[in-house]
Amino acid sequence: MPSRKFADGEVVMGRWPGGVLYYELQVTGYDDTSRVYTLKYEDGTELELKESEIRSQSSFKRRKSQSSSGSPSRRRTGKVQSRSPGRPAKSRRRSSSQGRDHKDDKEKTIQLVLVFFKLSENNTRSYNGEPDSTERTDTSLRSVERNLEPDLEIEHEREEQKIKEKIFKTIKTSSKTKELEFGGRIGTFTLIFFLPATVFYLLLMCKQEDPSLMNFPPPLPALESLWETRVFSVFLLWFFLQALFYLLPIGKVVEGLPLSNGRRLHYRINGFYAFVLTAAALGILLFFQFELHYLYDHFMQFAVSAAAFSMGLSIFLYIQSLKAPEEELAPSGNSGYLVYDFFTGHELNPRIGSFDLKYFCELRPGLIGWVVINLAMLLAEMKIHNQSTPSLSMVLVNSFQLLYVVDALWNEEAVLTTMDITHDGFGFMLAFGDLVWVPFVYSLQAFYLVGHPTAISWPVAAAITVLNCVGYYIFRSANSQKNSFRRNPADPKLAHLKFIPTATGKGLLVTGWWGFVRHPNYLGDIIMALAWSLPCGFNHILPYFYVIYFICLLVHREARDEHHCKQKYGLAWERYCQRVPYRIVPYVY
What we know:
Elements: E1 11-15, E2 22-31, E3 36-40, E4 46-50, E5 54-56, H1 98-124, H2 137-147, H3 157-167, H4 184-206, H5 229-247, E6 252-255, E7 266-269, H6 271-287, H7 294-297, H8 299-321, H9 338-344, E8 351-352, E9 355-356, H10 357-363, H11 365-384, H12 392-410, H13 419-422, H14 428-441, H15 444-451, H16 458-487, E10 499-501, E11 507-509, H17 520-533, H18 545-569, H19 571-579
Antiparallel strand pairs: 1-2, 1-5, 2-3, 3-4, 6-7, 8-9, 10-11
Helix pairs in contact: 1-2, 1-3, 4-8, 4-9, 4-14, 8-14, 10-11, 10-14, 11-12, 11-14, 11-15, 12-15, 12-16, 12-17, 16-17, 17-18, 18-19
């Protein structure tokens, strides 16, 4: 039997199956029977190649640069200096300003990525031999530079613009979801019942005179009392009113991030206008003596109505997703298991015409509804306790959470870069979360204060306000920094930020907030959640459920982010984790 030609650990040049370009790989294994080598990219991606598809590095000798020719048959290769994607480019002159050097590095990185995309388009048009994500940009630069050099000058501006749009594109090949989250099929089946039960339990406990955990279970109401057709009609009116505001031709229209097929969806940014119109409508209702505390009196029925609607919506979404093309399915909800895909969401961006259901539900009916519920609780407190003004605790809770909602609506465009929009499908998880969990659980503190008033002093209120402001500052500045960098990494305003280049063409920030901890926005979230609960005092743990839940949620999200980023960025993410060791809380976690 002939001996193997390449040893384990040896760095070679391997041809990507079906392609014409060679990539720098490392041998990690060999099968004596099939004579097939296992090789690995720098970012950890593995593939198998036959010996005939592998060449030694010494066979790739660079040739001197010659004059370029427009004829494909006479195209000549030029000498392009190879460099590691993780090492910054060397400019001919070193500026004394670190910001200028980093800006030059960004421009050179973009130019080299352009080289790759032009070559792949000119030579293969549809390069089916790319790795399983065309984010292989930076790791492929060495092989591209050693083989071919494009003539950048002869390209038209329009073609160049199209190529530039691909630099930061995330292209994912549609495939079955292999790694199941949330406990897989059994876990998601359980959550479909457990989540509504949790909401109803919390609301029933808040209604008790002594909402202690020792009083479990709370008295269960009669089933017929949980449903009221009038309440469901009011909920439907609210939902479709927000849909009407969403369809109004006000606000700018922006493009979302590229989909797997390269297409960008359009979104109208008018959430803040919808909030203003809702506030005006409420003002008119209150002027005509409408009893808004009706929400408090029928709070459980509203929660049941919202849960029923979210279930019906989820069923509609799943049935609709069965007719969606493969490329429009969510990467996290295409397992082939009905219950799992129903829960996580089978289709990524379900739409009725131009009406994007997921994007609409993400910020409109539930988030704005949260503010309306808080206001209803404030009015209910004044009426029940015969007060001319609301308590200081209720004012703090309403003010803090109003700031959070207004911030989300004012920065509505930022939601387009979140995992909810770019990665997760729209199924029961997001439908129930947006329409039930957010408005009825996030308003738990205000609901609790109606039946369990808590007096706090002005100095305590001032301290809690400072705490909330600190959390909000961390949350907002970290998110703004991330969103600006995602949208335009070459923005001169971001020239002072350092980053680690990745194989996707994107960068991982290692300065600013994202060099402090890996998820500084989560740190701000936790601080704000604590500030929202402190006005409720310490008599019961129930108002702090939100804090406990939020910590668990963020730890789960952080684990998802870590797994997703490790798969997406490979070795670059490992270098980032070494550079930024703390995940959410510095020196703690």
